[in-house]
Amino acid sequence: MPAPEPLTLDEDKPASRKWLKEVLKPARAGLREALLVSLFINLLALAVPIFVLQVYTRVVFSHGVSTLYALLIGVVAALVFDFIIRQARSRMLQRVALRIDVALGRSLYDKISALPLRTLEGRPSGFWQTLFRDAEMVRNTFSGSAAVLLTDLPFAVLFVAIIYVIAPPVVWVLLIALPVFVIVSIISGRMMQGATKGERQAGIGRDAFLAEMLQGRSTIKALALERTIKPAWEDKHADTIERALVRGGRTDMFSNLGTTMTMLTTIALVTTGALAIIDLRLTIGALIASTMLGNRVIGPFNQLVGNWRNYANCRQALKRLDTVFALAEDRTERSIRLSRPEGRLTLEGVSFGYEEGRPPVIDNLSMEVKPPGMLGVVGRNGCGKTTLLKMMQGLYAPTGGRVLLDGGDISQFSRRDLATWVGYVPQECFLFAGTIRENIAITDPEASDEDIVKAATLAGVHDYVLDLPDGYATEIGEAGSRLSGGQRQRIAIARALLPDPPILLLDEVSGNLDMQAETALRNTLGELARDHTIVVVTHTPVLLRACNNIMALDRGRIAMGGPTQEILPRLFGGAPRPAEANAEAAVEAEQKDVALAASAEKSS
What we know:
The chain is of the alpha/beta class. It is built from 22 helices and 10 strands.
């Protein structure tokens, strides 16, 4: 399988809008209804100009007061009906926006959730967040004022035709002005496109930097890095502001230009009409009515100058969403339901590299882990240990070779199946805001209390939870901020143990554990290794001694491997170091003392 390519979501590529058709499908009926209502709204827009024309033609000069009252009643009724159907159109468009919001938000969430881990790691988190802003842009374009504008524009032709009938001498002013508005709109869109793109990229960079600051807030406070980081933040923030000013300046320029062009068009209409009245080719009522209709024609085109930027932004958003929806996904559906695997992992000539042209992190590695038992993986930093575990879990697809589970290529299994069969505890575990119970049961919210307690007990966190005032209902804060590193680590282990996976992958899980907890974890893993396949990346002798086999990695290859009793002395030069031996002996002695005290209490 080829290495994942970096995402280039702003390039011009052939658009595949199948996803958009699915998103708009629930809203099509509402859009058709809104278009039909717009027809009546634009027809009712003729009521006021016709009223003015008739007043000047049939009332003023003939003193027809009864005619005036009749016209007044008619135009008021038309305005009331116009208000009612405008309200109805607004509600229709609100329902359309809601349907698009639900469909597009759900589709985008499902798509991002189904993307491979390497694809998600290829862009900062801020980039993926901005895709939902793109979704809002698409929604607003298809259901907001921009959509109303598009429904009003075709009726401009009708109004021009009516002006030609009632005031032929002034119609040529509109025939000249309207193409000018269109040309200015196109120029506006092209000039705004680059400014908007630059502002968006600067905003993504600033937001990514801010997210990194918030993630590292403890380090920043501990080392007093505020002054060190401030110049970089100010540079990014200033760049965003500068690009926003450029975009805002261009927006204001074209908006003001559109207003000026509207007033010039009105002046040209009135001037031309006045000359025609002097020449007895036009009446005053026809001039006033045509001026009102002309403003009705010019209004949408003036809005087009300001809204063209929105259409250009929508086009860019659609291109980015097109590319995202075209990205390859993890397998999300199973072709056949398989029983729980035994847990035999096989790697056949597996290779993996993060970037082309650089040495691979895993280089043509072949191995087999047979169940049951526990394999310890050691090696220097950067030798590929974590990458190897992610490939075993199916999070990374190998660039060469394949990974087998019970003889079957894991690429055929769905992401959910692999997550159930292969438990994984990363080196930096992440917990979600909520309760301890919710975090342990997050992979199976319907899990029974007995299963949750069993997993917590195996992970060595049950006794700690019972000592809390709220027990398993204790809120842990954002990312588990109210817990210590060791407590977060144990909860993550309990979360991985809950579905009872036949394979368990652990990446430096003892880094935040004290010696007593480490010994308890060793005993737990030793029990689990009797009927599970466990692969643990660790450099702790306490855990390595519980392994059946040990494998040492070096530059993505197996440097040595074999039974623990053969490999461990070669790693640590024979017997354990005094400090480690004394610490382990002290923990075992303490456990014996606790057991003796408990038995003495029972006998008394």
